[in-house]
Write a structure and sequence with these properties.
19 helices, TIM Barrel, Urease, subunit C, domain 1, Diaminopimelate Epimerase, Chain A, domain 1
Length: 542
């Protein structure tokens, strides 16, 4: 009896000592299918976090034995992933769009007009703005004209942006406010005329004349825009978003909201290529906080393929004599590239057409020889001459948006022809050359959902499962490649692979829990996957 009693006392003391000896941690997530996206693409069943970072990944039993945790979460067997990173989007613009007329998904110009009328009846603004129309989705695929808007709104300026952000439809009141006439000079783009009269269509560079005439959003509207964009992003499991082209004022507002903790999402800011921005940032070190990274310059090489603004080496297949256009003289781009090369900043250039891509790739290659870790990016890398794929590497990174392929596939061959199409939306070729691809959405040009990105990358189909065998299916990515492109490779493209992009000890505890396993479900189910919970720094934010 004494021996039994002594053994019991010693056991209680041992358990007590073990409990006291356990390390403290904040959160244990267990009973999960965890895709770590580490170097071996391993899976696990549990992890613990502390002070906003992953502390250890392993088995539930081992982690419970080692750690005394403040909170436990039973994932119920659900799949857990690193927080998704959108490698190319327009975060601030998405927020502003929530305050404007939404024209996405319209199937006719009449529907566009009706949405504008409904919006103005409800809001009664002094200058109507909006975004999202796409004439390629209408029965009449020609650009609309301003005539109907002039009749309905003779005194209220209207400026509504095409889905790609590279064309505007404006009415006469907006043209008058901006001082635009048939004699207005411009370079790069178009102020469209027919029979000597303005049609109301403005493409690329001269769009800035309209923007300058629009009232600036108030500070309250700007703050609300950022917070609304954050809310939408968290609902889709995005924990980091790359904002592709913003000004110092917006960056500083982001920083202030981060400091007051109302803005919690991590942001990678590309500064817009303006003289003011370049003068302010390039002579300084990049700005890096826990949630904000400012170390890149966004340059627009050309326009968009949908509005025939992409710069092509040969004429458009559906418009004789038309080649699109660069948005800046070659000398200006090369001078800016040299200036960025002399700084500590990354250069990220929008390039859609094969001519623009060649200019960007050749310039990058010339400037970066011998400089092995600059990670300059080609945003979109959309139409590449087959002889130019060789330029891509882990130092010249293709930053691509898979839903562009499934949005453009209905008319891309009309623009490019069958032969040139073989070098377009060629994501597998880009991956084979570069070794990585950074994946994004380009929202609000496309929808925010990273599940649509994933689906488009692996199936090359739209949500109606068209075409049956996939659009250029040989250019599809595997599920593992796609997940890496939305996590660790996107982090690498941001110089952030040591702090995020995978579930590994020491990295930020940014993770998401999904209702279905995106790596295992039938591909047709991927677009409908829901985020159950989103965590940033180990904090539940959705």
């Amino acid at each position: 009896m004494r021996k039994i009693l002594l053994f019991s006392v010693l056991s209680i003391m041992l358990i007590s000592c073990n409990s006291e000896d356990r390390e403290e941690a904040d959160l244990l997530v267990f009973n999960a299918e965890i895709y770590t996206v580490d170097d071996s693409f391993s899976t696990a069943e549990a992890f613990v976090t502390k002070d906003g970072k992953f502390l250890q990944i392993g088995t539930t039993e081992a982690l419970e034995e080692k750690y005394k945790v403040a909170e436990k979460f039973d994932a119920g067997g659900k799949s857990v992933f690193p927080g998704f990173i959108d490698a190319h989007a327009h975060f601030y613009r998405l927020g502003l769009q929530q305050q404007r007329v939404d024209l996405s998904g319209t199937k006719s110009f009449d529907e566009v007009v009706q949405r504008i009328v409904d919006f103005q009846n409800k809001r009664g603004v002094e200058f109507i703005t909006g975004r999202g129309w796409d004439q390629n989705d209408w029965e009449n695929k020609e650009f609309p004209t301003k005539d109907t808007l002039d009749q309905l709104f003779p005194n209220t300026p209207i400026s509504v942006t095409r889905i790609d952000g590279h064309a505007l439809l404006v009415n006469q009141a907006a043209l008058d406010k901006a001082g635009i006439t048939t004699e207005t000079a411009f370079e790069g783009g178009d102020i469209e005329q027919k029979d000597g009269k303005l049609t109301g269509i403005i493409i690329d560079n001269p769009m800035s004349l309209i923007a300058d005439a629009q009232p600036e959003p108030s500070t309250e509207e700007q703050v609300n825009a950022l917070l609304e964009a954050q809310k939408i992003s968290f609902e889709y499991g995005l924990t980091t978003v790359v904002d592709a082209g913003i000004d110092r004022e917006t960056i500083e507002l982001m920083d202030s909201l981060h400091k007051e903790r109302s803005l919690k999402i991590r942001l990678y800011a590309m500064i817009s290529n303006t003289e003011e921005n370049l003068d302010y940032y390039l002579d300084k070190d990049p700005i890096k906080t826990e949630r904000l990274n400012v170390r890149s310059v966004k340059f627009y090489g050309d326009g968009a393929l949908g509005s025939r603004g992409a710069a092509l080496k040969e004429e458009y297949s559906d418009r004789a004599g038309h080649y699109g256009a660069l948005l800046s003289p070659v000398e200006d781009f090369k001078e800016t590239a040299k200036r960025v090369a002399a700084s500590k900043f990354q250069l990220n250039t929008h390039a859609i057409g094969d001519s623009a891509n060649y200019l960007v790739l050749e310039t990058y290659d010339e400037l970066l020889k011998g400089d092995e870790d600059r990670r300059w990016r080609v945003e979109h890398s959309q139409v590449i001459d087959t002889s130019d794929f060789k330029y891509f590497s882990k130092n010249i990174i293709p930053s691509i948006q898979p839903t562009h392929a499934t949005s453009d596939m209905y008319w891309a061959e009309d623009r490019l022809g069958e032969e040139r199409l073989q070098g377009a939306y060629a994501y597998k070729k880009l991956l084979d050359e570069a070794g990585i691809v950074a994946l994004g959405t380009d929202f609000p040009v496309e929808e925010v959902s990273p599940f649509l990105t994933f689906y488009a990358a692996v199936s090359r189909q739209d949500t109606d499962n068209y075409p049956e065998n996939g659009f250029m299916i040989d250019q599809a990515l595997s599920r593992e490649e796609t997940l890496k492109g939305m996590t660790i490779w996107a982090a690498y493209a941001n110089f952030e692979e040591e702090e995020k992009g995978s579930i590994e000890a020491g990295k930020y505890a940014d993770f998401i829990i999904l209702d279905k396993d995106i790596m295992e479900v039938d591909a047709s189910e991927i677009p409908e996957i829901k985020v159950l919970e989103t965590y940033v720094n180990g904090e539940k934010v959705y």
